[in-house]
């Protein structure tokens, strides 16, 4: 999806003009993918913009950095304020938020430890990742011929910039084949996730999603949906799945900060369920979007308001 330009980006402790937010062409991250990031959303609510799971996202950012021996030169609380400051500076009521920590200019080679660290927070308006109509109609997906990174090659627990080239290969393959998105398998042939989303199936009223040990990211939206489903009385299991589990599911959907809850209507040209958004997916979406708008008190602590109005 194209980026909509706004006014300001937070870089290394200060807000700069959008067009002045530069890094050097010899920055370590540009050559070796040595960076970590998060994808976060802020939603419009009756109390103004509110950031969805801000603290959880920043905790994961620091966990990702730890795995790569990347020292973030700001406290988590300072980055939380940076996120709110950047939203305010751009006058946005809802937006996508991209915190990014990269190894900068000064060192070349695969030893990154002496490279300086740059920290960026950017925000911009962004709609539904797979299209607004997909939230109701669902998407067509393809099982990719590309396998997900092995856990002992590149750890799925980290959202690191360079390792997403694996997802880029799968995404391009699916688009060129006429699909909307891809699903990747691990080396054992088990389902991991989409190119940038977790995946769930519904079978006989039970929700099933792959465990993180299969190679998927421990998604924050994934955890939120598991909590919502259990609160609604559904059983939720983390179990290894294979491609035929998707083909034969009653319902299937993606979750993620960008994708939110997006139904899957076809897998490898096989219709899932009735070929449209199923009733459980619809119910989960209803509660999820109410929570993002601050309309469900059960999930009030999932929101951090940009303007604290008491």
A few lines on this structure:
This protein has 310 residues and is α+β, with helices and mostly antiparallel strands. It has helices at residues 28-32, 54-67, 76-89, 134-137, 165-176, 220-231, 243-247, 279-292, and strands at 8-11, 14-17, 35-37, 40-45, 48-52, 95-103, 117-124, 139-147, 181-185, 191-194, 198-203, 206-209, 236-238, 251-256, 260-267, 270-271, 303-305.
Question: Would you give an account of this structure?
Answer:
The chain has 310 residues and is an alpha+beta fold. The chain folds into two domains: 8-124, Aminotransferase class 4, branched-chain amino acid transferase, N-terminal domain (D-amino Acid Aminotransferase, Chain A, domain 1), CATH 3.30.470.10; 134-292, D-amino Acid Aminotransferase, Chain A, domain 2. 26% of the residues lie in helices and 29% in strands. It is built from eight helices and 17 strands. The chain has helices at 28-32, 54-67, 76-89, 134-137, 165-176, 220-231, 243-247, 279-292, and strands spanning 8-11, 14-17, 35-37, 40-45, 48-52, 95-103, 117-124, 139-147, 181-185, 191-194, 198-203, 206-209, 236-238, 251-256, 260-267, 270-271, 303-305. Strands 8, 9, 10, 11, 12, 13, 14, 15 and 16 form a nine-stranded mixed β-sheet that branches. Strands 1, 2, 3, 4, 5, 6, 7 and 17 form an eight-stranded antiparallel β-sheet that branches. Strand 9 (181-185) and strand 10 form a beta hairpin. The radius of gyration is 19 Å and the shape is globular.
